[in-house]
Amino acid sequence: VNEEPVLPRAISVFISFVALLRANGFAVAPEQTTAFLAAIELLGPRSIEHVRRAGLATLAPPPERRATYDRLFDLHFHGNEAIERADVEDEEVVRLQEEGRGEDEPPLADEANESGLAAARAEALVARRFARDATIDALRRLSREAAHLPRRRGHRRRRARRGPFADLRRTLRESVRNDGEVLRLGRLRRRARPRRILLLIDVSGSMKARTEENMKLAHALSQAARNVEVFTFGTRLTRVTSALRLKRREQALNAAAHLVSDWDGGTRIGDALQAFLAVPRFGSYARGAAVVVISDGLERGDPVALRDAVAKLSRRAWRVSWLTPLATAPGFQPQTEALIAIRRFVDDLVGGGTSAAVVSHLLSLGSRRAA
Amino acid sequence: MPVRSNIVGIDSPEALEKALRAAYYLADDAIATASYLALALGKPLLLEGNPGVGKTEAAKAIAAVLGRKLIRLQCYEGIDASAALYEWNYPRQMLAIRQAGEESIDIYGEAFLIERPMLAALRAPDSTVLLIDEIDRADQEFEAFLLEFLSDFQISIPERGTLRATEHPVVVLTSNRTRDLHEALRRRCVYHWIDYPTEEREARIVMMRASRVAESTARAVVAAVGKLRREPLSKAPGVAEAVDWAEAATLLHRGGARWPEAFKRSIGVALKDEEDLHFIFPRLDALIAEAAA
Q: Do A42 and B41 touch (CB under 8 A)?
């Protein structure tokens, strides 16, 4: 006898919690829901904390969204009273914003500002939406010629006619056909892989005219190459990598626009880069990477902080390129204090006034060696 | 999904926590819960956290509690099936072919198979714990390969056929989160983010792990390490560094150094980056004095 499975009432409250998480952009698979229910049963549950922990272990919310998870949990299981809990905030001058899933409209009103809480700071927080625009030739060129983006030698091997390693497996298989006689030794060589590109985009007021184009470019680059990390900085540092992984440009840029809250504000490049390097996980993105900074270098903060940060970055990176819209002619000599200070730590200080210039530079990196 | 609520006499997170403590691992409620759930649900346990919070130690402790052998697979970029799963002993096969002469010979027999960690764990699921360490260092190809292993717990060797585990092996994965793991991998596992322990717990860990460190020393070190972790350092000291620092300072103190001086001179075991040292040095005295208070 096949009966419709009826959801016991006691379970439905947990199922609806999963639905609430999904509505807030957490990716939860059906098998995780099953595991969640099994976990609750295993733990008793003797208290509501058991349910919270069962959820943490099986639904696996990413650590940077833990605060949101807890808030939704309290909302769902405790009602409204418990939501007033103060979120733990780090005391960095430059605040780090870790992105969420890049959903289009964060259902929690204050989501975009989640780790911000910067009301105390006199910053102009403007949510900006990107307007539609025609595709630019430069972006087309980027996706067409993506093979020219920088590469490095990987550790995985592939068959080759000539190469430094012997392919024993293939050699043996072939020798069996010849009564154990090795007629030809198969060779292997290391495969080239795309090098990580770390793109740091200045979104402060002085770069206002270029910001939209730069974000489009960042999206095109994220689509063209696999190994791209994108951060924006002004008075804050924001990771927008996964927002830009969304395929449709409009959607991706909208998602990024929600994450970034310091559009067209001031610039503290040094502090932003220091903050970037101080998070070990972010700092390791720079290791061996082609680091590309798009900024005019008009620093309002301490130029020493900027110089130290760029020096540190250049020691980790494969190559640091600084693209500034101020450099229009080939023999550009920097005038601002900040750019003069960092000149000896960057490998390329070139023009980035147009998307075409930025794309040309990115594609030219593929034929360069480490500095 | 085979659920077993009782594993070698452990039937709750609290019981597991107690057993882990007996294995010299001080677990908090959250990690004990996640570990218990992973064992009970027969799923792999994925531990993420900053370097030095004790992810690998947790795996070792779990193996000790279960009374099983720990098989460790250290990941690196380019790791592939021949390093993780199995490899044929080619020179031996070649020799065997030569020696066999006219007789027929099976060169894909057991004698020519070299067992690697994943195959070893699959063949003895009831007596081993498989630790896949620093999975974030491996590339995406390996992650995809691992996904297959973790969902079916089976391995296919083209020359020999498919091998399936008789029961779900206990698997612990760790990641330093230097890159985001694939969503599908997180989904397969029971997940836990290990944070730095609270001061209270870390002091207990230091005293348990270090040989002869006084409680006051442990507390001072833990307080100082806690302060250092709030600084923008490129490599923050982990729990292991705290233990080393306490041990080193105690050693210097016994050698005749005065207290704040002993801490200061042994800072090298806690901070291992020249720039970090340089950055913190001007404030080190104040920091230590504050921590020792």
A: yes
Q: Tell me, what's the ipTM? A: 0.83
- What residues contact residue A255 under an 8 Å CB cut-off, 6+ apart? A102, A103, A104, A243, A246
Token readout for A65 is 């969204």
Nearest beta carbon to residue B97 from set A34, A176, A278: A176
Q: What is the pLDDT of residues A291-309, one digit of tens each?
A: 999 998 888 778 888 998 9
Question: Residue A154's closest chain B neighbor by CA?
Answer: B78
CA distance A330 to chain B (A): 35
Residue B12 in contact with partner chain A when CB distance is under 8 A? yes
pLDDT in tens, A198-217: 999 999 888 888 888 899 99
Q: Using a cut of 0.90, tell me whether the model's pTM lies above it.
A: no
DSSP-based three-state secondary structure for B113: strand
Residues A100 and A65 sit within 8 Å (Cβ to Cβ): yes
A283 in contact with B at a CB cutoff of 8 Å?
yes
Per-residue pLDDT of B44-58, as tens digits, reads 999 999 888 999 999
Question: Do the Cβ atoms of B34 and A60 come within 8 Å?
Answer: no
Nearest chain B Cα to A60, which residue?
Answer: B191
Cβ–Cβ < 8 Å for B63, B96? no
Scan residues 130-159 of B and list those with Cβ closer than 8 Å to A.
Answer: 139, 141
Q: Nearest CB to B177: which of A54, A57, A281? A: A281
Q: Which residues in chain B touch residue A154, judged by CB atoms under 8 angstroms apart?
A: 77-78, 139
User: What confidence score (pLDDT) does residue A37 get?
Assistant: 93
What pLDDT, in 10s, does the model give residues A167-195? 988 888 888 888 778 888 889 998 888 99
Q: Is the model's pLDDT at A7 over the cut of 70?
A: no
Q: Who contacts B31 (Cβ-Cβ below 8 Å, separation ≥6)?
A: B47, B58, B192, B194
Distance CA B136, CA B115 (A): 23
Give B89's contacts in chain A (Cβ within 8 Å): none
Own/partner contacts of A19-25, CB < 8 Å, gap of 24 or more, are A20/A72, A20/A75, A20/A76, A21/A59, A21/A61, A21/A69, A21/A72, A23/A107, A24/A68, A24/A72, A24/A103, A24/A106, A24/A107, A24/A108, A25/A100, A25/A101, A25/A102, A25/A103, A25/A106, A25/A107
User: Which residue of B lies nearest to A227 if distances are taken between CA atoms?
Assistant: B179
**Coil/strand/helix, residue B154:** strand
**How far is B62 from A128, CA to CA, in rounded Å?**
50
